């Protein structure tokens, strides 16, 4: 399956999961910085639909991408209920507009899976994301630098093993083990998931995650 088809199939699966969440679930904090689950959902819609001009204007006002990203997610969340945002996401996943037309599908899969985990783990829900999707995300994120996800840097020099999938990366004595979804979250700087990993290299990875979160 191509990356684009895998992205669309996974987005359709995510929307069916998201539709089961309650209003209080959406209002709850996620694992993603200071965003609520509602704002995380809004961010996914932003990624597919925001125009370049709007993004540049928010970056200018907010003095950087991160501030612009946060402002846009909060603005979209304020303007649309979770039900409305899910309807937009179902439409946009087949016909992206704005900057969403240019993002590589393999990077968007990683972004969408990471944010689904931000929502579900924060609610105490164990994800049921297909193994092939999780493996595709891990392979992409540890293989080349991504300006938005620090997994490539966080994984350097470590031997990573997914305990619930046929996936490993790296070699050496600094072993880090965890479920595939847990590894995605930790490599993406989600400190709340650090207790889920183990191995001789777990302390090294934890130090990287915590230092980079402190740095911004």
TrEMBL record:
InterPro entries: DinB/YfiT-like (IPR034660), Maleyloyr_isom (IPR017517), MDMPI_metal-binding (IPR024344). SUPFAM superfamilies: DinB/YfiT-like putative metalloenzymes. GO terms for molecular function: metal ion binding. Residues 11-92 form the Mycothiol-dependent maleylpyruvate isomerase metal-binding domain. This is Mycothiol-dependent maleylpyruvate isomerase metal-binding domain-containing protein.
């Amino acid at each position: 399956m191509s990356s684009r088809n895998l992205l669309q199939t996974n987005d359709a699966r995510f929307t069916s999961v998201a539709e089961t969440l309650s209003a209080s679930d959406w209002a709850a904090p996620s694992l993603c910085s200071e965003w609520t689950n509602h704002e995380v959902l809004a961010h996914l819609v932003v990624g597919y639909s925001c125009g370049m001009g709007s993004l540049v204007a928010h970056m200018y006002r907010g003095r950087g991408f991160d501030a612009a990203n946060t402002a846009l997610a909060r603005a979209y969340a304020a303007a649309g209920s979770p039900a409305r945002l899910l309807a937009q996401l179902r439409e946009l996943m087949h016909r992206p507009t704005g900057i969403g037309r240019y993002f590589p599908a393999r990077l968007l899969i990683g972004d969408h899976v990471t944010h689904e985990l931000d929502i579900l783990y924060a609610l105490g829900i164990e994800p049921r994301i297909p193994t092939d999707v999780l493996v595709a995300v891990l392979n992409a994120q540890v293989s080349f630098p991504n300006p938005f996800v620090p997994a490539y840097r966080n994984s350097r020099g470590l031997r990573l093993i997914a305990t619930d999938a046929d996936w490993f990366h790296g070699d050496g004595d600094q072993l880090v083990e965890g479920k595939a979804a847990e590894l995605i979250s930790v490599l993406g700087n989600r400190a709340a998931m650090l207790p889920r990993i183990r191995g001789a290299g777990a302390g090294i990875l934890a130090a990287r995650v915590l230092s980079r979160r402190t740095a911004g």
